[in-house]
Design goal:
The protein is α+β, with helices and mostly antiparallel strands. The chain folds into four domains: 86 residues, Double Stranded RNA Binding Domain (2-Layer Sandwich); 97 residues; 184 residues, Orthogonal Bundle (hpI Integrase, Chain A); 63 residues, no CATH class. The chain has 19 helices and twelve strands. The longest helix is centred in the middle third of the chain and has 21 residues.
């Protein structure tokens, strides 16, 4: 029975008492409605490779007439080309695509963690949806919803962009992997709607560095050392957090960041300045700690693994400093201090481990950690000067065994830190106390009547181990 379908016609046509009745649309051959005693359903009928087929599209009360008509047109067009979608594998869900993408693509572990976090946190309610169910309207709406205030006072626009960029990669991967030729990537709706994100410019101002240093020194040791290491190396947060003792070489005065732990995906070696050596030396396990199995990480986590981001400490420091800052600001502060102190731009690029776009001749310049040593010393001295402190005072504050520190290479590394007799004498106001014998080490230095290296001069105490307290 051929009739012109309307919603009113379908709703008012009664169901048969028994059996079934087929109503066929007069405007779209092959599109129809099947009536049974219990329900009404949209159907599509036609020939596929010479065989007559009938497919149920859905129940009339759950499906719009126009949507059903469009779906019928697609199926009839596929049948005309000999395509049977019912025998094709089902469209994967977003979660399935994500897992397959992370499994097959070659990328760093940290990158995989970032991709997973962005999708699962930003689109958790989409994970069980087939990828072809994502529409442009959904994409535009979610992109706007992801913009919200953060703890640091930003609007998280960069994160919103990143989440949609990862989704775009996943959908492109799905179209190729699962042969979804007809899958249109809905993220194209953002072509002219991406948020403009300015590069961060945050640093710790030079005038605020003394206050910053004093505030940091009040924090728990692991967080304090972690923050200072970031400041004096310019490392990224995750690079410093994953630093292992196996990659700290006191004998040669270097620390190495493994390729899988850094953004550039290559091994990065930095020289140890006296300040860095002092910080790392102070973190070596004590005799009491050696009874338990020590962590492989310089900054171990509370229970396992390594430290991530000391959020409670950062919140306290932000409140004390009176402005919002992030750990990456320390990286910009270190590099900016080097630029102001006259460190060559090429050296700053190497310290930052940025990709250097070279000319042909530059490719023959192999710059190792020894090339960076003097420049790292320059940055370290500049920061110490701005913070109105020095390595010696920091060691006093941290209660380091002088003999052990000297044996670890502090004396050798400290040759660039030289103070005149007058400069040493001016430090007598610091209440430095030697526990054994109550001798004042600065008096010992003044009596030498010559320019001396502060840390090298500590060798006068090598006759017996002594600890300095601040």
């Amino acid at each position: 029975m051929y009739v012109k379908f309307t919603k009113t016609l379908i709703d008012t046509t009664p169901c048969p008492a028994k059996g079934q009745v087929i109503l066929r649309d007069s405007t779209l051959p092959g599109f129809g409605v099947r009536l049974t005693p219990t329900c009404k359903s949209f159907i599509v009928e036609g020939l596929l490779s010479g065989t007559r087929k009938r497919v149920t599209l859905g129940r009339c009360e759950r499906m719009n007439l126009e949507d059903a008509r469009q779906e019928a047109q697609k199926i009839l067009a596929d049948w005309k080309l000999g395509i049977d979608l019912s025998k094709m594998p089902p469209v994967p869900t977003l979660s399935e695509v994500l897992e397959c993408f992370l499994l097959e693509r070659s990328m760093k572990l940290e990158t995989k963690k970032t991709y997973r976090s962005l999708i699962e946190r930003s689109m958790h309610d989409w994970l069980k949806l087939p990828v072809n169910a994502l529409s442009k309207e959904m994409i535009l709406s979610r992109h706007q919803q992801l913009v919200k205030p953060t703890r640091c006072g930003t609007e998280n626009r960069a994160c919103a962009n990143s989440a949609m960029q990862v989704l775009r990669c996943l959908l492109n991967f799905a179209a190729a992997k699962y042969d979804l030729a007809g899958l249109a990537n809905p993220t194209e709706a953002l072509k002219y709607r991406w948020y403009r994100v300015e590069a961060r410019q945050g640093v710790i101002p030079d005038a605020q560095l003394p206050k910053f240093y004093r505030a940091v020194m009040k924090q728990p040791k692991i967080a304090r050392d972690f923050i200072l290491l970031l400041l004096f190396t310019g490392l990224r947060r995750n690079e410093a957090a994953a630093l292992k003792w196996a990659n700290v070489d006191f004998a040669n005065g270097t620390l190495t960041i493994e390729a899988e732990s850094n953004k550039s995906n290559r091994v990065h070696t930095l020289p140890l300045t006296p300040m860095l050596t002092a910080i790392l030396q102070s973190r070596l396990p004590s005799d009491e700690q050696e009874e338990a199995e020590p962590s492989e990480f310089v900054f171990p986590g509370r229970y396992e693994g390594h430290i991530n981001e000391p959020r409670a400490v950062l919140a306290h420091l932000r409140a004390e400093m009176g402005w919002q800052w992030i750990l990456h600001d320390l990286r910009r502060t270190a590099l900016s201090a080097g630029e102001k102190a006259g460190v060559p731009f090429l050296a700053l690029q190497k310290i930052a481990n940025h990709v250097i776009r070279r000319e042909v001749t530059d490719q023959y310049l192999i710059l190792d950690s020894d090339f960076l040593r003097a420049h790292m010393e320059t940055i370290s001295l500049r920061l110490l000067e701005l913070m109105k402190t020095d390595v010696y005072t920091w060691m006093a504050a941290d209660t380091i065994n002088v003999k052990e520190a000297h044996a670890a290479g502090l004396g050798r590394s400290a040759k660039l830190i030289e103070l005149t007799v007058d400069e040493v004498a001016s430090d007598k106001t610091r209440a430095i106390n030697i526990r054994s014998g109550q001798r004042n080490i600065l008096d010992q230095l003044v009596k030498s009547n010559e320019s001396v290296s502060v840390l090298t001069s500590m060798s006068i105490l090598e006759d017996e181990p002594e600890e300095i307290y601040w």
